[in-house]
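Any chance you could type out a protein's amino acid sequence plus the matching backbone structure tokens because I've never seen that pairing?

——
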Amino acid sequence: MTTAVETINNLDTSALEGKYLTFILNREEYGLEILKVREIIGLMDITPVPQTPAFMKGIINLRGKVIPVVDQRLKFGMPAAEYTKETCIIVVNIDNRLMGIIVDTVSEVLDIAAKDIEPAPSLGNKIKTDFILGMGKIKGKVKILLDIDKVLTLEELAMLNN
């Protein structure tokens, strides 16, 4: 019988191979599957929505579509930061819904080979890491590859649509 740790360590990373849009939050690099990215836009006026969590910055009107916007730093429990001219919104498709995530800056699009992706490390039972696809190793640096569909929980997504 295989344990959960053995299953994780034997994860087939070939399915994760592909292009990733990389971005920075609090000096850490992350990557999103490029197929989930709709577009990258500069900061624009965000209308706050009452009674939402602090990470939910509000909504924007993007060419006639109302899109919820999340500050990814706050969602990940990082300290808030002053928005700069490099701060931008990555518009992603989550479960057939458009959503904006605010990041410090977008880096580049990388083609990451399966051999350069390792499974997310086990951090114990109490720490939720199911939103991490894997760890991309590029030029001596590690980039955390996110499963954007799992960054927000189903409850949070439902709340944004009410």
Observations:
- The two ends are 44 Å apart (CA to CA).
- Helices lie at 4-9, 72-75, 148-151, 154-160.
